[in-house]
Design goal:
This protein is α+β, with helices and mostly antiparallel strands and about 80 residues long. It is built from four helices and two strands.
């Protein structure tokens, strides 16, 4: 268990062991969630990535891609079209 002190401005310093566990760097944002009267926080970027990953799960197969290389090739073609070269 770690303890953090709240400053007069309502700020806290997250202990280094917690920052390392959450892979937080200066400037990163955190998500604070309440569940049954308890508050939890997590790395906002990782939460967003996980949600996107869950939302797109299976989408590549549904679109007809059999592997990541096919999908990347398709994305490169789209970029060329958008950029005009």
């Amino acid at each position: 268990m770690e303890i953090a002190k709240i400053s007069s401005k309502g700020q806290i310093t997250i202990p280094i062991s917690v920052r390392e566990a959450l892979k937080l760097k200066p400037g990163d944002k955190i998500v604070i969630q309440e569940e049954s009267g308890r508050f939890y926080f997590d790395n906002a970027a990782l939460v967003a990535f996980t949600r996107v990953e869950q939302e797109f799960s299976g989408a590549a197969a549904e679109a007809g891609f059999s592997n990541e290389e096919e999908m990347q090739t398709y994305m490169k073609e789209i970029r060329k079209e958008v950029r005009g070269y």
